[in-house]
Amino acid sequence: AYLGPPEVSISSCVNCINVTIKLPTSHFRENGKLLSLIDIYKEIDYGITLKTLDGEHKRSRKKTTEEIFSTVIEELYPNRNYCVSVMLTASLNQRSIPSAWKCITADSVAQQDYHAVAIIGAICFSLLLASAVKCIHAGGYILQDKSLPCNLV
C-alpha cells in the first residue's frame, strides 16, 4: 500500500511559509474503528520539497506523531513565488504518493506595513477634513443658523 497523498495547505508569513499537513486516512479497521496512520505506524516521517525558480530543494526529513500538524519554512526571499509538496513515509512503508504542488508568494515586511500605513493615513485625512468643515461652520461660512441682516446682503 502507498502512503499519501497528504492534505497540504499553505499560508504566507513575513519571509516564510506556514505549511499545514493533514495525514491521509487509512482504510484499516480494528474492532470496527477506522485506524489512523499514527495508530498503525506510531510515527510518520515527512519530507517537504520546496520549488523555486532555481529548482527543487528537498528539506531535511522530520517525524510526527500527530494527525494534523504545521511547520514553518523560514529565511525565504520576500515577494518570490514558492511551491511546496509533501511526501510521507513510515518505518515499515517507504512507498509514498506526494501531495500536489501548492504555490504562494512569500510576504515582505513592506507589504504588511503598507496596509497599516494606508489605514492610518485614511483615518488622519478623515479627521483633518472633519476639523476643516467644523472650523468653516464655526466661522459662519456654511450651514448658518441665522440669516444675515438685509444691509449686509
Task: Describe, in plain words, how this protein is organized in 3D.
By secondary structure, this protein is an alpha+beta fold. It contains two helices and ten strands. Strands 5, 6, 7, 9 and 10 form a five-stranded antiparallel sheet that branches. Strands 1-2-8 form a three-stranded antiparallel sheet, with no helix packed on it. The longest helix has 30 residues, at 109-138. It starts with 6 loop residues before the first strand and ends in a 15-residue tail after the last helix.
Key traits:
single chain, 153 residues, alpha+beta, 2 helices
The assigned structural class equals alpha+beta
The portion of residues forming beta strands comes to: 25-35%
Spans of at least 5 consecutive residues with low confidence = none
User: Sheet with the most strands?
Assistant: 5 strands, antiparallel
**How large is the radius of gyration?**
29 Å
Oligomer: single chain
Number of helices: 2
Helix content: 10-25%
What's the total count of β strands?
A: 10
Q: What would the average pLDDT be, to the nearest integer?
A: 87
Termini separation (Å)? Answer: 95 Å
Tell me the series of helices and strands, N- to C-terminal.
EEEEHEEEEEEH
